[in-house]
Amino acid sequence: MKNIVVTFFVGFLFSCGTVDKVEAQFENKVAESFHQDWIAGVRGGGGGIKFKLKLKTELSEGAELKRVIFKGFEASFSQLDTLYYQAVIITGVNQERFEGDDKSTSSSPRSNIQLKDNEAILVFSKSGKEYQQKITNVVKKSALEYPSARPKF
For 57, how many CA atoms within 13 A lie in the half-sphere containing its CB? Predict the structure, then answer.
């Protein structure tokens, strides 16, 4: 019985060490992270946050950047190229509501995790397992205010 408990305890310690190594490897890959608020140029066109991430090196084989948790929302990443990723968070700003319908607006899924304004949690997977990495240096850039359509004469 004692051998079983010792074996379990050693295995648990090994698995915890592996998680820390994987997360530490990913933390060193982030070169820059920033966000920009955006709003459509037409009434009811929507608005939200663009979260962008630049890596120092490509992700290793078997690793995938899944989603970000930022300002109370979760959004999936799309890969722009080998080093750049973007997640678009829909916040419900500038959305047209229909009379009597409270559910006519849409937004990205909400998260219960409380973070500071310059913090985010990156969720990534490696070999089928999900890991989370908190980053604390998210920079705010000036808002993107898309122009409305040109008037037709």
Answer: 9
Separation between Cα atoms, residue 84 and residue 45, nearest integer Å: 26
Residue 100's region, left for phi above 0, alpha for psi from -120 to 50, else beta, is left
The predicted pLDDT at position 47 comes to 84
List for the chain the helix, strand, coil content (%; round to 5).
Answer: 15, 40, 40
Q: Which domains does the chain have, with CATH numbers?
A: 2-145 (2.60.40)
User: Which DSSP symbol is given to 69?
Assistant: E
pLDDT the model gives residue 7: 44
Rama region for 44: left / alpha / beta (φ>0; ψ in -120 to 50; rest)? left
Residues with pLDDT less than 50, the chain: 5-19, 21
Query: Between β-strands 120-126 and 144-145, what pairing exists: parallel, antiparallel or unpaired?
Result: unpaired
Q: How many CB atoms lie within 10 A of CB 42?
A: 13
Token output for 136 = 């604390």
Residue 68 buriedness (CB in 10 A; 0-12 / 13-18 / 19+): buried
